[in-house]
């Protein structure tokens, strides 16, 4: 039995499923015009209040002003509900609720923010298997052209076209290899975005390995807590630790795996290029895992 | 012209059956063939062979879902042409990628009857697909039956390409577990 016999056998599925897939087209998402109108009203009120303040040096507390603010309070609250869903609260605000990981969207890593010299050719069979990367690299796996450097030409990896962590490098001699980004990334949220994960639901597992033993969790509550705290990590620069800590694998639903090293005494999570100090909550999750 | 009328033309052995089929399903068949073969010339040949196949099959057949019936013939012809081209190291298309993806979800050796024929395996696929949420089933069929590129599926499903890739990855994992479980219980 091989992949071709699989592909042929898929041809024998019920015709209802073939028809269903032929007919289906998702409806485009509706644009909630009323929310935008409310947001515009709120901005107009803000602009008017600012103008009055600048002119008089104080806010007008007269009855007419209160009536004006009261009339638009419904629009203001609706607009703030709309905007709260789209933008995260400032994390240092004492009244800010904990970010809802399902709604929080990480900034997207763009190719032009990456250092192409920091991509490393992936030849280790363990790493290739861990990331579900099939060898040899064939022409069909090469997606859009990304960039040309002195090393060669970078192409997207077709099944994960939009994910910058993995690319294909075609060198001048025509050789094609997978490359994995190992350069510096400032924050945890950018790191997950590099691997195409923009919500906790995109995590598949986390595992910690020490002394040849590995413990793994796929529990969605743990993954959600892990993701929330991971997003807040900020790099303090290149790691100084020369000893390997415990190997932490962060698995994503798209099949990729991010490797980091957990140094429990220093309370650091490290990649090759960055050391991220850990908050207590993340330390607790990793200690529970180990 | 609706499908039942076209089928009647085949039964009446009227040559306008082919013209009507080409008018209604020509681009549908060409898309399936192009997705697999990535060659206009090869795709056109497969489409023409499809019409011959349909002419020979009807009668005696009277398909319920004509689009799926004709699509199956095109798909099979295209896969055979792909195998022939691949042996001669020609051509491209999505088929190579599909094969790589499916390699990863082949059940472990010994866990499934290696002599199982295509029809029995097809039945297993039907049971597997029955248990999937509708959206995931459609994505799976669009990828592995229609051989659509990920970008086309993402557009059809109004979701990001990364999400489509994730769904396919997880569905392939479920398929592997399902086939191993079914193979052991046979």
Describe this structure in words.
The complex is a heterodimer of chains A (290) and B (186). Chain A is α+β, with helices and mostly antiparallel strands and 290 residues long. Chain A has 9 helices and 11 strands. In chain A, the strands form 2 sheets. A 6-stranded antiparallel beta sheet of chain A has the order 7-6-8-9-10-11, with helices on one face. Chain A has a 5-stranded antiparallel beta sheet with strand order 1-5-4-3-2, with no helix packed on it. In chain A, helix 3 packs across helix 5. The two termini of chain A are 40 Å apart. The relative contact order of chain A is 0.09. Chain B is globular. The longest helix of chain B has 25 residues. The N and C termini of chain B lie far apart (46 Å). In chain B, helix 1 packs across helix 2, helix 2 packs across helix 3 and helix 3 crosses helix 4. Helices cover 74% and strands 0% of the residues of chain B. The chains are: A alpha+beta (290), B mainly alpha (186). Chains A and B meet through helix 1 and helix 2 of A and helix 4, helix 5, helix 6, helix 7 and helix 8 of B.
What would a concise description of this structure say?
The complex is a heterodimer of chains A (290) and B (186). With 290 residues, chain A is of the alpha+beta class.
Give the low-confidence spans of chain A.
59-107
Beta-sheet strand percentage of chain B? under 5%
Largest interface: A-B, 47 and 61 residues
Oligomer category: heterodimer
| Broad shape of chain B | globular
CA radius of gyration of chain A is 25 Å
Q: What structural class should be given to the helix and strand makeup of chain A?
A: alpha+beta
Q: Count the beta strands of chain B.
A: 0
Instruction: Compute the number of strand runs of chain A.
Output: 11
């Amino acid at each position: 039995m091989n992949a071709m016999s699989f592909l042929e056998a898929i041809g024998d599925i019920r015709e209802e499923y073939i028809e269903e897939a032929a007919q289906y087209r998702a409806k485009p998402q509706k644009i909630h015009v009323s929310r935008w109108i409310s947001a515009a009203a709120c901005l107009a009120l803000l602009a008017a209040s600012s103008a009055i303040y600048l002119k008089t040096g104080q806010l007008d507390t007269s009855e007419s002003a209160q009536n004006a603010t009261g009339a638009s309070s419904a629009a203001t609250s609706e607009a703030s509900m709309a905007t709260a869903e789209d933008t995260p609260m400032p994390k240092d605000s004492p009244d800010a609720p904990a970010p809802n990981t399902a709604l929080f969207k990480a900034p997207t890593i763009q190719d032009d923010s990456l250092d192409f010299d920091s991509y490393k050719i992936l030849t280790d069979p363990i790493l290739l298997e861990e990331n579900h990367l099939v060898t040899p690299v064939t022409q069909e796996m090469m997606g859009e052209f990304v960039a040309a450097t002195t090393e060669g030409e970078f192409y997207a990896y077709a099944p994960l076209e939009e994910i910058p962590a993995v690319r294909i490098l075609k060198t001048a001699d025509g050789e094609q290899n997978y490359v994995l980004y190992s350069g510096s990334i400032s924050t945890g949220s950018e790191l997950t975005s590099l691997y195409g994960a923009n919500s906790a639901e995109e995590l598949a597992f986390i595992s910690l390995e020490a002394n040849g033993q590995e413990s793994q969790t796929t529990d969605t509550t743990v993954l959600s807590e892990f993701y929330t705290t991971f997003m807040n990590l900020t790099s303090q620069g290149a790691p100084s630790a020369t000893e390997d800590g415990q190997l932490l694998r962060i698995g994503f639903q798209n099949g990729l795996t991010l490797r980091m090293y957990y140094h429990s005494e220093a309370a650091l999570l490290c990649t090759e290029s960055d050391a991220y100090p850990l908050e207590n909550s993340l330390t607790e999750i990793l200690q529970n895992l180990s | 012209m609706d499908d039942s009328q076209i089928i009647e033309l085949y039964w009446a052995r009227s040559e306008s059956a082919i013209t009507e089929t080409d008018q209604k399903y020509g681009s549908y068949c060409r898309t399936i063939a192009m997705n697999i073969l990535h060659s206009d010339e090869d795709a056109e040949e497969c489409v023409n062979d499809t019409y011959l196949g349909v002419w020979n099959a009807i009668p005696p057949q009277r398909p319920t879902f004509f689009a799926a019936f004709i699509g199956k013939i095109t798909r099979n012809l295209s896969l055979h042409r792909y195998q022939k081209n691949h042996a001669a190291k020609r051509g491209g298309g999505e088929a190579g990628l599909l094969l790589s993806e499916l390699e990863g979800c082949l059940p472990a050796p010994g866990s499934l009857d290696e002599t199982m024929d295509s029809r029995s395996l097809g039945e297993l696929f039907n049971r597997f697909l029955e248990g999937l949420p509708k959206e995931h089933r459609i994505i799976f069929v669009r990828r592995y039956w229609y051989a659509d590129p990920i970008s086309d599926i993402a557009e059809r499903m109004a979701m990001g390409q990364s999400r489509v890739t994730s769904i396919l990855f997880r569905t392939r994992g479920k398929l592997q577990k399902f086939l191993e479980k079914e193979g052991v219980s046979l």
